[in-house]
């Protein structure tokens, strides 16, 4: 007679394995784990955080600042008193590098974050309302794209904007100008993606239920393009830092007495043979900044991609565990 209460060892082992495999893990946890498994991306994050920390606390490790002149050490190479040497005016390069790194990171973070936020709201609004609203907003977008950013920066930070320039520091003026011209491309991409989301059932259901447009945009459209926004933030920070360096290098960006990496690089270019430390120190910091952001961007792209190779170790480990469990089941069954 067959015992109905008997338990098959093979079936029990298989059920236990399935129960362990069905543990639900949040999407943010999965993305974080994939990112942390990418050693290159983690190294980029560590470099960026180290430079950010250096820009905020590095000034406490030297008695000099970016305005104090040392008349006894003019154009001197790195020494125990001046860690990175002095400029041809006798100003400590270490203090100027700390200040310049902080200004460049500040410009990059503000422009990168705010421009993506503006692009998300603008693009999602265009896609949600459509029709005449979309056409009008698209016209404004195309008009801004056609404006010469280089000319506007030159006017805003030079004699043409003298009244405004006297009231605001040059780095804040540059942030405002970069914000005006840095969000249009992302907004067009977000508009096309949001238009496809507008055809999804959850958006239509929210509309039929009378959910306000602002809530639909913030709760349904923006979160569903979150991966694109995160990647655009890192790209936007990099682009803003490079734009600051480029504009300051040619003399239409940040102006003295404000200091940035672009100002330091541009001021030392003509004297790279005489004062090489004045050129290579800020250039190295710029490369570390942009390189670390590029490494982080690659890691984030792999982390958001379900088919990414960054989860290869976990897949191999799971496959190995599955093979071990199957062999145990077969042994118990036999």
TrEMBL record:
Membrane topology: Multi-pass membrane protein
GO biological process: peptide transport; protein transport; transmembrane transport
Region (Disordered): 304-334
ABC transmembrane type-1 domain: residues covered: 105-297
Subcellular location(s) of the protein: Cell inner membrane; Cell membrane
Entries under Pfam families matching the protein: BPD_transp_1, OppC_N
Domain of life the protein comes from: Bacteria
Transmembrane segments: 41-61, 103-124, 136-156, 168-190, 237-257, 277-296
One GO term describing the cellular component: plasma membrane
UniProt xrefs under PROSITE patterns: ABC_TM1 (PS50928)
Bias type Polar residues, positions: 324-334
Keywords linked to the UniProt accession: Cell inner membrane, Cell membrane, Membrane, Peptide transport, Protein transport, Transmembrane, Transmembrane helix, Transport
Family stated for the protein in its record: Belongs to the binding-protein-dependent transport system permease family. OppBC subfamily.
Protein name: Oligopeptide transport system permease protein OppC
Species of origin: Arthrobacter nitrophenolicus
């Amino acid at each position: 007679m067959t015992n109905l209460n008997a338990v098959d060892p093979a079936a029990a082992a298989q059920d236990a394995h399935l129960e362990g495999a069905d543990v639900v893990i949040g999407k943010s946890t999965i993305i974080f784990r994939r990112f942390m498994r990418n050693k290159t991306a983690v190294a980029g994050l560590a470099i960026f955080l180290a430079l950010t920390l250096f820009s905020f606390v590095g000034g406490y490790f030297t008695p000099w600042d970016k305005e104090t002149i040392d008349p006894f050490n003019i154009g001197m190479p790195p020494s125990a008193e001046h860690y990175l040497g002095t400029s041809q005016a006798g100003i400590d390069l270490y203090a100027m590098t700390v200040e310049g790194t902080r200004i460049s990171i500040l410009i990059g973070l503000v422009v990168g974050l705010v421009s993506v936020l503006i692009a998300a709201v603008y693009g999602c609004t265009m896609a949600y309302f459509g029709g005449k609203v979309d056409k009008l907003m698209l016209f404004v977008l195309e008009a801004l794209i056609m404006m010469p950013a280089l000319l506007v920066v030159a006017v805003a930070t030079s004699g043409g904007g003298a009244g405004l320039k006297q009231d605001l520091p040059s780095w804040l003026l540059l942030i405002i100008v970069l914000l005006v011209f840095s969000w249009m491309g992302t907004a067009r991409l977000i508009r096309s993606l949001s238009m496809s989301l507008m055809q999804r059932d959850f958006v239509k259901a929210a509309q039929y239920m009378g959910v306000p447009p602002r809530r639909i945009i913030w709760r349904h459209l923006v979160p569903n393009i979150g991966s694109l926004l995160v990647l655009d933030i890192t790209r936007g920070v990099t682009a803003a830092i490079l734009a600051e360096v480029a504009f300051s290098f040619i003399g239409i960006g940040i102006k003295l007495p404000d200091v940035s990496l672009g100002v330091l690089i541009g001021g030392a270019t003509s004297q790279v043979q005489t004062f090489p430390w004045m050129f290579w120190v800020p250039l190295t910091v710029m490369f570390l900044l942009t390189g670390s952001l590029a490494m982080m961007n690659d890691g984030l792209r792999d982390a958001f991609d379900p088919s990414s190779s960054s989860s290869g170790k976990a897949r191999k480990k799971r496959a190995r565990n599955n093979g071990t469990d199957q062999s145990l089941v077969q042994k118990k069954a036999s």
